[in-house]
Here is the input.
Amino acid sequence: MFKMGYFGLEPGICRLREEVLCHEEKATRAFYDGLLMAHRIALIGGDGIGPEVTAEAVKVVRATGVAIDTTDFDLGGMRYLRDGEILSDDVLNQLRGFDAILLGAVGTPDVPPGIIERGLLLKMRFDLDLYVNQRPFVGTAPGHVTPHDFVVIRENTEGPYVGEGGVLRRGTPHEIATQGSVNTRHGVERCIRYAFELAAKRERKHVTLVHKTNVLTFAGDLWQRAFNDVAAQFPQVGTAYNHVDAACIYFVEDPHRYDVIVTDNLFGDILTDLGGAVSGGIGLASSANLNPARTGPSMFEPSHGSAPDIVGTGKANPTAAILSAALMLDFLNESAAADRIRAACDTAPTGSTVDIGNAIAAIVAGK
Ligand code: IPM
Ligand code: MN
Here is the structure.
């Protein structure tokens, strides 16, 4: 900083000059502080309505005043069709450098099933060790009058999703296909522990294990014992067990019984679609793919798909993407901003994709 009198000017002028410089210096410092403290977000808009809903989510996050520094990644089915890139190790390593990843939706009808799902989405879940898939459900189920409020914690890196198995004599009458389910004590236990830690912070403090222990006796036994062992360390948290088929009935008939549910990867996938259906529709269903150990970025995405049939029509509801961005802010320790977003979404604005995003952004910004 320049010292007064440096230029041999009269003291008054010097003071003025000093004030101006101080002001400039402060502004410069604030600018760099802003850059340093801004959360670095990798944006994967993806395919179909993905980019439309992600744009609204970013708009709403910016309206909270939380500083984010976004970088776009062109990935998904359309990119794959263009030049074959799905998710190279190089791009994956770039993603590791971010604080979080915000994803719209991936998949296009022109690419056969499995290629983008396995090569992009599941690769991120596995390689970034996003072992918890957290899906909150708040809403009033059809035929009910009071809202329910529960969270499904879906194991996200094991089970039938790992791709164990294979095919023999494909296309012949003697074809054999097997698809195993991998359950490790480590993987199961860390997911269950996360569910209990979450429940301990919630008002009702209750965890239900959902599985199919009466048929999947090997995996079910491992899950049940891991659950019992973790539960013993959380005496303040109540517990229950439901078979997954029964849980489907309870989701519809008695969703209020649930607080936190913990379940295996495939059961969690199916159950959370039903969770969306009984909580106002899949257009509101948010999800967080978490690496709670924070050894890398976590990934946030709406539960819905790329809906290519409505792309460009303005019919896509961006609320699920916006609520997923709120989960991202929770994970980045910006819960006050996240709560403001959730409160704004509760007003359920209507209109086009952009109308809904604008309305939520305006409430969040206090306009
Ligand atoms: C989900 C989706 C994915 C899954 C698909 C797209 C691979 O359905 O996130 O629920 O099965 O996990
Ligand atoms: Mn699913």
In short: The pocket of 3-isopropylmalic acid (ligand 1) is lined by residues 117, 121, 269, 303 (CB under 6 Å). Residues 104 and 240 are 34 Å apart (CA to CA). DSSP finds twelve helices and twelve strands in the chain.
